[in-house]
From TrEMBL:
Limits of the CheW-like domain: 36-179
UniProt-recorded name of the protein: Twitching motility protein PilI
One of the GO BP terms on file: chemotaxis
Gene Ontology CC annotation, any one: cytosol
Signal peptide (UniProt feature, chain positions): none
C-alpha cells in the first residue's frame, strides 16, 4: 500500500514540475505614464522646498559641532562624520537671515560634490520623498522668495495651484560665491 502512495505522491510532484516548466509567465506590459522627477521635501525657515533626491547623500540627526572662529553666523561648525570633516551650515540663516529653531525634528542634509568636502545643511525637518510630473515644472520667479531665487531653477505646484514647491539646486547653492565666502 505504501508503494502506491509513494508512487502517487511522486507522480503528483512530477505533474507539478511538468506544469510549472510548461507555464511561462507573461512579461509585464510596459507602463507608459508621465516621466517623474523625484525629490526630497524639507522645511527651511517655514518654506517647504524640495531638492533632487540624487543631490542628497544622506540625512542625519544634527551632530555635535566644533565652532569655527571668524566664520559667518550661518556656518555652524565642523562635525566628525565617520572620520571625515563635515561643514554644517544653517540653511535657513544663510538663505533668509533667520536662524533655525533647534528642535528634535531638525535634520542635516549631507551633500557631496566632486572635488569638494562634504557639506551638511541644517533644515527644520525632512518631510519625505515626493514625485512630480516632469512636465508640471513652472517658472520659479513670482512663486519663490527672492532670497531663494538665485538657487531655484524651477518649481512645482500641486494640482490646484495652491502650494508651490521651489526646487532648490544644491550644487548651484554650494558653488555660489556668497556661500563660499564663509569668513566673517
Amino acid at each position: 500500500m505504501s508503494g502506491e502512495v509513494t508512487t502517487t505522491a511522486y507522480a503528483l510532484l512530477l505533474d507539478f514540475e511538468r506544469r510549472a516548466v510548461g507555464h511561462r509567465a507573461e512579461a509585464p506590459e510596459a507602463q507608459t505614464g508621465p516621466a517623474m522627477w523625484r525629490g526630497l521635501c524639507y522645511g527651511v525657515s517655514g518654506v517647504e522646498a524640495v531638492s533632487s533626491i540624487g543631490e542628497i547623500a544622506e540625512i542625519l540627526v544634527p551632530p555635535a559641532l566644533t565652532y569655527v572662529p571668524g566664520a559667518r553666523p550661518w556656518l555652524l561648525g565642523i562635525a566628525n562624520l565617520r572620520g571625515t570633516l563635515l561643514t554644517v551650515v544653517d540653511l535657513g540663516q544663510f538663505l533668509f537671515g533667520r536662524p533655525t529653531v533647534r528642535e528634535d525634528r531638525n535634520r542635516v542634509l549631507v551633500v557631496r560634490q566632486r572635488g569638494a568636502a562634504a557639506t551638511g545643511l541644517l533644515v527644520d525637518s525632512v518631510l519625505g520623498q515626493r514625485g512630480f510630473e516632469e512636465g508640471a515644472a513652472i517658472e520659479a520667479e513670482g512663486v519663490v522668495d527672492n532670497d531663494m531665487l538665485p538657487y531655484v531653477p524651477f518649481a512645482f505646484s500641486d494640482a490646484a495651484g495652491e502650494q508651490f514647491w521651489p526646487v532648490l539646486s544644491l550644487p548651484t547653492l554650494l558653488r555660489a560665491q556668497t556661500f563660499l565666502d564663509a569668513a566673517a
